[in-house]
Write a structure and sequence with these properties.
Blueprint (H helix, E strand, L loop, with lengths): L1 H10 L4 H8 L3 H8 L7 H11 L3 H6 L13 H14 L3 H11 L3 H15 L3
């Protein structure tokens, strides 16, 4: 499992400190996992999977190889997860934006979508 934790961190372009911050752990705890000196608790494994979108079976066993590292989510599931993240944010801009979009004219939504894609570099 230690190699898979390191592989996840590298695929996500995270330092050990950044991963530790995401998981509310210390950097040296991540280091001990990555060298195989310690095994993460079930709670930590669950947090890795939930917060980084990792396939738990792959993390625990390596089953399916690296192409099975991340969970595959449908477009509808991705939408639900994103909406869930937005609703727990205490960000007034996000709340306003969701309300504006929900009530916008369909033609204006097309313009906004194109603008957002350009701003975010999405094709």
């Amino acid at each position: 499992m230690h190699d898979r934790i390191k592989e996840i961190r590298r695929k996500k372009n995270l330092t050990q400190q950044e991963l530790a911050d995401i998981l509310n752990l210390k950097r040296n705890t991540i280091a001990t996992y990555e060298i195989g000196k310690a095994i993460p608790s079930d709670r930590t494994i669950s947090d890795i999977c939930l917060k980084l979108g990792v396939n738990e079976v792959w993390l625990r066993t390596g089953e399916g190889g690296p192409e099975n590292m991340f969970t595959q989510t449908s477009e509808d599931d991705a939408y639900s997860l994103s909406l869930g993240k937005l609703t727990i944010e205490e960000n007034q801009f996000i709340k306003n934006a969701v309300n504006y979009l929900a009530n916008a004219d369909p033609h204006k939504l097309e313009i906004i979508e194109e603008f957002m894609k350009n701003c975010l570099g999405i094709k």
